UniProtKB/TrEMBL annotation, chain A:
It comes from uncultured Mycobacteriales bacterium. This is Carrier domain-containing protein. Residues 9-87 form the Carrier domain. PROSITE patterns: CARRIER. It comes from the Bacteria. InterPro entries: ACP-like_sf (IPR036736), PP-bd_ACP (IPR009081).
Amino acid sequence: MSNTDYAGTLTEEAARAALTDFLELRTKHVWEPATDLFESGAVTSIFAMELVVHVEQTFGVTIEGDELTMENFRTIDAMVAMVFRLKAGARRG
Amino acid sequence: MVDALAAVLAETVGQRAGGWDLSGEIPEDALRALGTRGVLCAAVPAEFGGQGLSALANGELTAHAGVLCGSTRSVMTSQGMAAWTVQRFGDDKQRVDLLGRLTGGELAAVCFSETQAGSDLSAIGTRIVEEDGEIVVDGRKVWATAAAYADLLLVMGVHGAGAAVAAVPASARGVTVEKIPGPLGCRAAGHSNIRLDSVRLPKDSLLVGSRLPMAMLGTIALTYGRLSVAWGCVGMLRACLAAGTRHVRDREQFGRPLADHQLVARHIADLYTLERTATHACERAAESWDRQAPNLASDAVLAKYVAAGNAAEGAARAVQVMASAAAEDGHVVARAYRDAKLMELIEGTSEICQLILARRALEDVP
Ligand SMILES: Cc1cc2nc3c(=O)[nH]c(=O)nc-3n(C[C@H](O)[C@H](O)[C@H](O)COP(=O)(O)OP(=O)(O)OC[C@H]3O[C@@H](n4cnc5c(N)ncnc54)[C@H](O)[C@@H]3O)c2cc1C
């Protein structure tokens, strides 16, 4: 999967669906958009890193510095919000 | 590019690795020369003063260092891991400043381990507290590779509810670095224990993006280190294969070359297989890194686990076929024999790698 899949046309719904698919594929759990991923214990530290890389690759964003917080990865909704914030930032920048 | 950097390594290390192993020290000018000429953290992007090597190219360079000198390669792993940590967790200003220094001849060490916190980083007791617009670092670190040479120490500590990494100048007040006198291997890599007594630093010494849960912070930083150690092990295996094959071809016993004795040939076949499979695991992990494939973290664990185990086994085989010819400290195979064993202990022991890989395998069960 590459960022071109979503070039220009990304909707929040599509982003949420893509993240849910990836999480369910890798963790074999069903995830609601607002469920705390880390509280569940299903997300190991190795998987957390893979998640960071997956979000970067899928949506063509770079998550560094103070965007790299646990809060931004805690729920599917939080990740979607971060992706849109980063994309808006990149367009302005 | 890799060839030019490999040539710098060959020229700087020359035939001196055996002597450095015996004396337990690499001359500082040699390390600084490698640093300023871009060898020690060659994956840093050009915009920050680095060589911008891909993970694959940097891996081949690391293997080359591993062939020549396990201690120099260890310093390279530390410097590269420090640079990657800054690149990943620093803000723009920290990246420009710190990566500029790390590509400009300054040396760095990564300080995670403590007496009570080896495999279990969640037991880290070092504290990083924000106070009056400054940070204060307090704690004890053990076994930090290259710290005896380092200008900059990247120190992981408890910070608020999670963890963080502080960039601590080794010259800061309250920092004491004590070199470990007789490490089993990589003897000249400058492993040291460190005391941090109320070290006060400007607030921007805290890497902005490093305020994460301990385990996640560790994983991200160590993933670089694992790949680097794995390639270093490939280097040790290549050195052992080269020395072992030359020896069994040229030395005769019972009227024919050692290589013509089948039991010896089997050792050589195994050594060759260990080198090839370690290389393949490393290439695969480096490709995952370069593609930024999400499985890069577990591929790095796999590569490190395979390569370290292979190196320990391969070095033992090389000693076996060379016998007394390799039984002297300083010899390339004797060094590999001691150095390789330690590679099964660092950046996640083999058992910790097994736990991660088992978990990974279980996640894949449909
Ligand atoms: C040469 C060398 C260089 C190093 N460089 C650095 C460095 O640059 N920076 C740094 O911060 N640290 C460094 N270290 C420290 C290194 O990271 C630790 O030694 C390593 O994490 C293991 O910790 P430990 O030695 O305390 O062993 P322990 O954690 O006490 O482990 C002892 C044994 O128990 C096993 N074990 C532990 N927990 C489990 C478990 N849950 N399940 C199964 N088995 C388990 C281990 O695999 C091991 O076999 C270095 C160490 C060496 C030897």
